[in-house]
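pinned: reference chain
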Amino acid sequence: MRAEELRRPEAPYILFALASLATGAVWLNVRPSLLLGFYYSNEMLALTHTLTLGFVTSLILGVFHRLAPMSIFVEPRSRVWSRVQFWLYVVGVLGMIFHFALSEWHGLAWSAFLVWCAALVQLFNWSGVWAVAFRGEWVARFVACAHVYFVLAATLGTLMGLAKGRPGWVSLPHGVFVHNLYAHVHLAALGWVANMIFGFHLKLWPRTAGRRDWLPVRFLLLQAGVLGMSVTWLFGFGNRIPFALLVAAAVIWQAWGPVLGWISRRAREWELLPMAALLAVIALGVALACGWPPEEDPLRLRVQFAFAFIALWGWIVLSIAVFAFKLFPMWVWQERFQKDLGTSDVPAMRDLYSRRLFALTNLSLFAGTAGAAFAISMAWEWPLRLSLGILLIGVAGFLANFFRVARWALFNRPYTPARPGGG
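pinned: its structure tokens
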């Protein structure tokens, strides 16, 4: 095993993310009844943060260490700060998950505070993003906004933890605690994650860029929608429908280029799966903002739960699963094989992973998410169990394919060309 690969700043984030994804997927299959109850329960919050902080945010923070230097030519201020940030982050996340599961709010508040500190370190350590953003690089502008939303989401989460753990220490703006939760979710999912994904889409998936002179409009639509939705939930006033429509317009605009590419047969079907899930999320979000189902209808809680499930698994996790295999094979190939190009047999980047397993992963994640969301909305237990099993197959496929790629970087094994007709 090559120890230098494990010392790279992104490696611990990525390993922590993969462990969290496996834990979350197994947890769902062991406790499917969590998805048929009220979404605000201590165990559900622990499971949700295992996936959102443990997997999604951890993977973003890790991949960013590789993606930012190569795409927007920004380096962190210090590798020392990167290591400090990792330990603040991982201790904080594990503490949050543990204290959520135990309903121990005092410990939760301190754990959330560590995550907030990690968010501040991210903002400081990557402050070079702002100089690039001010020079007009749109990827950097999306990333800079994402960093601000990361801090805002962590701040509100910490204040919510303090409000629970130390009543009287802080006073949240709105009297309904779950509305503060909705504001926190919008800042995290639409502000932090969506800005980061949409920004790097412009580099990794050029069809999403469209006409560059219209990018400022799309960017402003997204920011205005996210801020408007978050503020109306947080302070309990105003009409959320216009802001939901602004977000919907930005998302549809982002998806328009890939859809046209697919229609004209210039895009692969797997590229559209995360976008299809995102469009379903937007449609449900607008419907909920417009009052369907009605507040008094028990169906509303189930639709909200299905809406969140599709957002997390169908869009975010599936987006990561798809684009991971644009990035990781390239990085491993550059480090392991590029130096030997022309002097010995080297594999193509696409040969470092299994394309059949890649297709199985994407289809399983998409089908499992769609089936589980429908079962949640209908409160059907056995279809939910079946769908979560399909989802677990997708997660297992993703992990197996990831380690199929990573073995070339971690182990000094020779490359042997596949025989003709091999898989």
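why pinned: Residues 299-336 form the longest helix (38 residues). The chain has a mean pLDDT of 91.
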